[in-house]
Specification:
- It contains ten helices and 19 strands.
- With 355 residues, it is of the alpha+beta class.
- It folds into three domains: 165 residues, no CATH class; 54 residues, no CATH class; 75 residues, no CATH class.
Length: 355
């Protein structure tokens, strides 16, 4: 793969402030993982109820079933206003709940109408999401069965996201848990929750962003540190990684790269964005098919006669305007006839030079 020169970035932040947020952030990006608290471009503690109402005039108050802390539970979660949220037809499947003392959104409920990507990039359709699907997305949740005694739901959670599955009270005894029974049960809701205190009460403590004993790390050409990288991304989110050492690293990032080298990581999302723009510029039909990044899951890519099933983003990222000879979009019937593929809606048949 031909490497491109990326200049050393003197100053940058690690977070991309979502487009729906107009709040200026001065906090340290290695303290708060904003990607983990962002859904559909709405970031917790950076989106306000006032801002939501400027985006859509039909935001109205709705009742929210608190699945982990219902009304009969002793003690409520202090991070948000319990039982009350705000919803709009424009943002189907999302209910926004604010802090108790401000209009900052500190919780987002995903309902059965939600279709889209989770903070880690995994696409879900809540209308058919099961517990088994959750375990595939978050393997660490397999051993995290939890429920308050006053709750009617199992919850599977980390410090920002929770999945809820209804407890079948007819199963006696409840413990030990009949885990196999629940694997195909539907997920009733997902909650994204965060305490806004860290965001709204920023620390002035000096933080060393880049450890001199680490490689110089870039994710999609943005400088990051190792702590941020490990806390924000899963290995399967990357299309490929390029490592530079010695003089090659120095050429790219200066003397800082001499000791431990430089590492460039390209995410699958960035790879998809690159090849989708290229293919769209060459095919109007492709632009019609790809209406959002989530539509990519409905497409089978065939490159030089080979059906791509692994490392798809990495393979397609290598294509550029100089080596792309032909692109053809076919639909379900022809996809089945030509390539015996029946689980995709569309096929994108690509031909490149050098083959």
């Amino acid at each position: 793969m031909k490497a491109t020169y990326v200049p050393l970035i003197i100053f940058m932040t690690f977070m991309v402030i979502p487009s729906h947020s107009q709040i200026t952030d001065n906090s340290k990006s290695d303290v708060i993982n904003y990607k983990a608290i962002t859904i559909s471009d709405f970031c917790l503690c950076k989106t306000t109820l006032h801002e939501l109402r400027t985006l859509s005039s039909d935001f109205s108050q709705v009742e929210v079933e608190e699945m982990d802390s219902p009304k009969n539970c002793y003690g409520q979660d202090s991070r948000y206003e319990s039982g009350k949220g705000y919803a709009s037809k424009k943002y189907s499947g999302l209910i926004f709940q604010t802090e108790q003392t401000s209009d900052y959104v500190s919780k987002i409920r995903l309902t059965k109408d939600f279709k889209g990507s989770l903070p880690n990039g995994a696409y879900v359709d809540m209308s058919n999401l099961t517990l088994k699907d959750v375990f595939k997305i978050y393997p660490k949740f397999i051993d995290k069965w939890g429920s308050r005694g006053c709750s009617d739901y199992w919850n599977f959670s980390n410090d920002t996201i929770s999945f809820y599955v209804k407890i079948d009270k007819n199963i006696k005894p409840q413990f030990p848990i009949n885990e196999a029974f629940y694997l195909d049960k539907p997920v009733d809701a997902i909650d994204l929750v965060f305490s806004c205190y860290k965001v709204l009460h920023k620390s002035n403590a000096k933080i060393e962003l880049f450890n001199p004993n680490e490689p110089v790390l870039f994710v999609d050409s943005i400088r990051v540190n190792q702590r941020y990288l490990e806390s924000t991304y899963q290995p399967n989110e990357f299309a490929f990684i390029t490592v530079y050492k010695g003089d090659d690293a120095v050429k790219l990032v200066g003397e800082e790269g001499r000791k431990n080298g430089a590492v460039y990581l390209t995410t699958k999302e960035a790879a998809r964005e690159k090849y989708s723009k290229l293919f769209g510029s060459k095919s109007a039909e492709y632009s019609k098919v790809i209406k959002s990044k989530d539509n990519d899951a409905d497409i089978a890519y065939i490159l030089n006669g080979k059906i791509l099933t692994e490392n798809i983003e990495a393979e397609l990222y290598k294509i550029d305007k100089n080596n792309l000879l032909d692109i053809r979009v076919i639909y379900k019937k022809d996809l089945k006839k030509e390539f015996n593929i029946s689980d995709k809606k569309y096929g994108v048949v690509l031909k490149t030079s050098g083959h």
